Amino acid sequence: MDVPKALNRLGDALEYFRRRKFSIVKVLKVGEAYMLSKGSLYVDVWAPTKDYVKYHDYEKLVRGLELDRVQALVIISYRPYTIMDYLKRLMDAAERWYGVSNNVKMIGVSEADAERGVEEAVERLHTYFAELISRPATVRERCPRCDAGDLQRYQFDDYFSQKLYGAARQYVYICDRCGLRISRQELLSRS
Ligand SMILES: [Zn+2]
User: Fold this and answer.
1) Which of 5, 14, 49, 141 has the greatest number of CB atoms lying within 10 Å of its CB?
2) Distance 88 CA to ligand 1 centre (A)
3) H/E element holding 102?
4) How many domains does the chain have?
5) What is the pTM of this model?
């Protein structure tokens, strides 16, 4: 795949992440990939050139994507779940054989519906890593799961949601006892 075409693949996604207040930390040296940050969250956004990952590519990939520096990896591809399966198997094998643990959270975005996909990826990043991005406010709401803990509420920046079709805001509620996470998106107005 030539470079200009590859650059176009991630162009729109990067623009979207920047609008959602992610900053570009660096360009990574593996295919087309960027490391982004928001608060203390570090995440790679990667458009692989192949649908598979072979074992001898794995080490190169871990180094190239600097997977020891990030908490999450967003894979933008026509077959993201196939690649995630390969990676997961290789990560499990590396852990079994060498005791190398890799806790990188993988999020797949289908290139066929990238616009909604990246919106959902940001929503999931906010949900999994709320504590790294935002500060909590205590709300007087009991946890619906354990009925013992209080929910902490994390608020995120307003944005235009393609899914809800309007200006929206995401809240993430986390139970201080059992760790339950709930994501809620509220529509602010119809446009
Ligand atoms: Zn709870």
Assistant:
1) 14
2) 29
3) none
4) 2
5) 0.90
